């Protein structure tokens, strides 16, 4: 890892556990084993580092959650794979995100205090919902979605279910609860298909 990569990695871990506001640049400098000059040589301020860390978090999210999706032909099965990956590869990734889903944690924290940063986090949620909607529309086009299914409502159900699973898993680290929640979402998807 280069020093810049190490700083971003440690910032991710700090933001994941403490949030943006409670994480000081001194915390990141200490965790990365560098100096103020080492940090400020790569980032002009904490917000710039945050945006770089957010970009890295999105790359990790894609790597963890989209693995194997392209090899699946049926759209609803792609969503189920994303759910399984979210459960098995993303939420349990304590190396990168020891505090749980960084996106959920930061959105809650920043929405009132730093709305422009919360909006940057929210962009990922918007893109994820768009992907879910596109896959469900493909399922409808294939003729395998039950008549009368409201795709927008399904997207909100899946998205809200994932957020709920994240919050509960972050609080209790119960693999059993996580399996139950994700299993219920997958069963819901089965129920809306022919």
Question: How many E-type strands?
Answer: 0
Q: Uncertain spans, ≥5 residues at pLDDT below 50?
A: none
Please tell me what the overall shape is. elongated
Which class do the helix and strand fractions yield?
Answer: mainly alpha
CATH homologous superfamily? Tetracycline Repressor, domain 2
Average pLDDT over all residues:
96
How much helix is in the residues? Answer: over 70%
Q: Please, could you describe this protein's structure?
A:
The protein is mainly α. It has one domain: Tetracycline Repressor, domain 2, CATH 1.10.357. 76% of the residues lie in helices and 0% in strands. The chain is built from nine helices and no strands. Helix 5 (75-90) packs antiparallel against helix 7 (115-141) and helix 5 packs antiparallel against helix 9. The radius of gyration is 18 Å and the shape is elongated. The termini are far apart. The model has no long low-confidence stretch (mean pLDDT 96).
What order do the helices and strands come in, and which of them pair?
Elements: H1 3-22, H2 25-32, H3 36-40, H4 46-65, H5 75-90, H6 102-113, H7 115-141, H8 151-172, H9 175-191
């Amino acid at each position: 890892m280069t020093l810049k990569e190490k700083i971003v990695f440690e910032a991710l871990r700090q933001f994941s556990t403490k949030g943006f506001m409670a994480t000081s640049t001194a915390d990141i400098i200490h965790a990365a084993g560098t100096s103020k000059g080492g940090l400020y040589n790569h980032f002009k301020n904490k917000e710039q580092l945050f945006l770089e860390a957010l970009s890295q978090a999105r790359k990790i999210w894609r790597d963890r959650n989209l693995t194997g999706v392209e090899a699946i032909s049926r759209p609803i099965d792609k969503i189920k794979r994303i759910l399984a990956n979210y459960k098995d590869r993303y939420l349990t990734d304590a190396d990168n995100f020891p505090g749980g889903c960084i996106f959920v944690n930061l959105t809650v924290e920043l929405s009132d205090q730093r709305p422009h940063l919360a909006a940057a986090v929210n962009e990922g949620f918007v893109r994820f919902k768009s992907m879910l909607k596109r896959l469900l529309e493909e399922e409808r086009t294939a003729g395998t979605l039950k008549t009368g299914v409201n795709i927008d409502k399904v997207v909100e159900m899946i998205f809200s279910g994932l957020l709920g699973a994240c919050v509960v898993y972050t609080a209790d680290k119960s693999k059993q609860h996580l399996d139950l929640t994700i299993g219920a979402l997958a069963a819901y998807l089965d129920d809306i298909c022919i």
